[in-house]
Each structure stands twice: as C-alpha cells, then as structure tokens.
Write a structure and sequence with these properties.
Layout lengths: L3 E6 L19 H13 L4 E4 L8 H11 L4 E6 L6 H14 L5 E4 L16 H20 L3 E4 L4 E5 L15 E5 L3 H10 L2 E4 L4 H17 L8 E10 L3 H19 L4 H5 L3 H8 L6 E2 L3 E2 L14 E4 L1 H13 L2 E7 L3 H16 L3
Parallel strand pairs: 1-2, 1-13, 2-3, 3-4, 4-7, 7-8, 8-9, 9-12, 9-13
Antiparallel strand pairs: 5-6, 10-11, 11-12
Helix pairs in contact: 1-2, 1-11, 3-4, 4-5, 5-6, 10-11
Length: 355
C-alpha cells in the first residue's frame, strides 16, 4: 500500500504556535494560503488543521484553503460535541464534492472547554460512545438513502445527504481518521474509523498497538475495509546529524526557559495517549534510533512531545521502520512552519517516496 504524507498548518488566533516565528499576517487567509500553497509546492499531500475552542473554525478554514489550492487535502479536525452528525455529513460532502475529493476528516473526542460551546458530556466512556455513534451515522449518511437512526446520543429519521461525497473507484467518501489510546478509544477505532492515528511512540509500542487493534477489529466484527494506521509526530531534519541535534537541543533550551519542566501531577492528569508519551522520558532521552523524548519534559504536548531528529536519511530510515509495522499515513511537522514546510518536504519526502 502506498503511503500518504501530510504536513500540519497552525490554526490559532495568536502567533508563536510551538515556536513559530511568523507574525505579519498571522491568522489571515493570506498567511494560511501561503502555507497551504507551500505544502503543495514541496510535495505534501495536504495538512492537518488543528481544532480547539477559541481558535478559528477549522471547517471554515478548510473550505477557504480548498478554494485557493489545487491538490491540497485539508485534514479537518472536528468534535462530535460541537457538530451534529447530519449537519457535518452534509457540510463535508458538499466541500468534498466542490473540491473533487480532497477532504479528509480527523474526529477528536478529547475535552476542550466543552461548556463554552454547550457540550455537557464529560464522562470519557459516554464521550467515546457518542463518537462511535457519530462515525457510524456519518458513514451511513454518506452512503445510504433515507437513513433512520435512533441512538443514545443522536437521532435522525429519513435523512438523505445531498450532494454525495465525491466518489471514485477506490473511495466512497472522505477518509475518517481517529486518535485515542484508551481501551474505549481503541474499540471505536476498530469498529468505525478508517485510520487510527498514533502519537510518536517507539516502535515496540506502535507494534503492540497495531497488533491489538487488528485483533480487536475481528472481535468487534468490523464491517468496513481493514483499519489503517497513521503517525503524527514532529520531525527535526537538517543536512547532517550534528546540525539536527544542535537544532533540537536549541529548541528544547528555549522551551525550558519559556515553560519550565512539566510536573508529575500534570502528567497524571493527562489523557491516556499523552501520558504514554510523557512516560517515555523515563526510558531514556533517545529511543530506537532517533526518537527524542526530552521535549515532553518542557511543555511539548501531543505531536510535540517526542521528535524524530537527524539527517534526511536517518529520519527516513526511522519512518521506514514504522511503515514495516503497517503505518501508511504520516502527519509530520516542525517550526517555523513556513521554512520547515519547504525544508522537510525537499529533503525528506524524496527519500520516503523512493521505491
């Protein structure tokens, strides 16, 4: 199976996201378009657009960028507590049709100031049950006529979405990405997601989770094509090993000055997937060949908790090891975004796409 390589576009009100140096035009359509066009020009298939309350609306930004690009695929992060499935299915199908099949969807279950937009569901088990219904119902609305569904969290009667998503021989609707490391999250992924996204864990952790999710897919009697796997991680790539590690250490030093060291209490309050990442520092500063765990001690969260650091050949070899485990979707990033979109694209992607 061929691999997909996506980048990441910041989607925040304030500049300086994860050390980015852009200030002029931050938050404008022009700046976002510049980054999306840079992703196109330097070989990326598209980019993940982050979501969060108090940030620009992700779907609105995706629509604007799709109109200003040619091949760029927006991976649109959405929350079931913010969208209702029928409205989302219709909006996403419309954008997918207008962009001729360029929409990707990342469904996020984690908490994010839910009271601010009227989401009263805080219990993790019930949130994942709601996400399961959301994914199942969106799929049905994209592929069936006159859908009736009466679940615990969502209900529709005789619903038909028009227009349909842009379909091809190998694609009936936008691909559904999903993340989460808890048992409840993995059950949702095994049953209804197209791609399970992992954070940057070492190879042994990813191998364990791939095996478990494949077994779980059988146990839950998955009705769709086999679950695929993706990796969301920061990549610090420079011409030489020495340059890459010097850049990584300089970045961590700036993080230490700005944020200080993350407390153990904060670690314990984190979600399961984030806690797995933060615990990696106890195994060593560098795991596998070039997985740098130290950023998690100084405020790095999510994809910024662990970094792959090295020359283009070293990082390409590290990513190839994930591919051997069955990972075929990669969402990479580094800052400053404008510069690293080009650098990582030009240095790393040709190596990753070699036969």
């Amino acid at each position: 199976m061929s691999a997909e390589y996506l980048w990441y576009l910041p989607n925040t009100v304030e500049p300086g996201h994860r050390g980015d140096d852009a200030h002029d035009g931050w938050g404008s359509l022009e700046h976002a378009t510049e980054l999306a066009l840079a992703a196109e020009a330097h070989g990326w298939g598209g980019a993940l657009l982050g979501t969060g309350w108090g940030r620009p609306d992700t779907f609105t930004l995706a629509t604007a960028l799709a109109a200003r690009t040619t091949t760029f695929q927006p991976l649109v992060a959405v929350r079931p507590g913010y969208w209702r499935p029928a409205q989302f299915a219709a909006a996403a199908a419309t954008l997918d049709r207008l962009s001729r099949g360029r929409v990707l969807v990342n469904v996020v279950s984690g908490l994010d100031q839910p009271a601010a937009y009227g989401d009263g569901l805080a219990d993790p088990a019930r949130r994942y049950a709601r996400t399961h219904e959301f994914l199942r119902l969106v799929r049905r609305l994209w592929t069936e006529e006159r859908v009736t569904f009466h679940g615990e969290h969502f209900q529709v009667t005789d619903a038909t979405v028009g227009p349909r998503p842009f379909a091809t021989d190998g694609r009936a609707h936008p691909r559904l990405y999903f993340g989460g490391a808890s048992p409840a999250a993995e059950r949702v992924a095994a049953a209804e997601a197209d791609v399970q996204l992992f954070w940057g864990e070492p190879l042994d952790g990813i191998a364990e989770r791939v095996d478990r999710l494949r077994e779980l897919s059988v146990r839950v009697e998955r009705r769709h094509a086999p679950l695929e796997f993706g990796l969301r991680i920061t990549t610090v790539v420079r011409d030489t090993t020495e340059e890459a590690w010097r850049a990584a250490e300089e970045k961590v030093a700036r993080m230490a000055v700005a944020d200080g060291e993350v407390s153990g209490a904060g670690d314990r309050r984190s979600a399961v997937g984030q806690r797995r990442l933060l615990d990696l520092a106890g195994r060593g500063e560098v795991l596998d060949t070039c997985l740098f765990t130290t950023p998690g001690r100084f405020g790095g969260g999510g994809a910024a908790t662990t970094w792959l650091v090295g020359s283009p050949g070293e990082v390409a070899a590290a990513l190839a090891e994930y591919r051997k485990l069955g990972v075929t979707h990669f969402v990479l990033s580094d800052t400053p975004y404008r510069r690293e979109t080009a650098r990582v694209g030009d240095l790393l992607l040709p190596l990753l796409r070699q036969p």
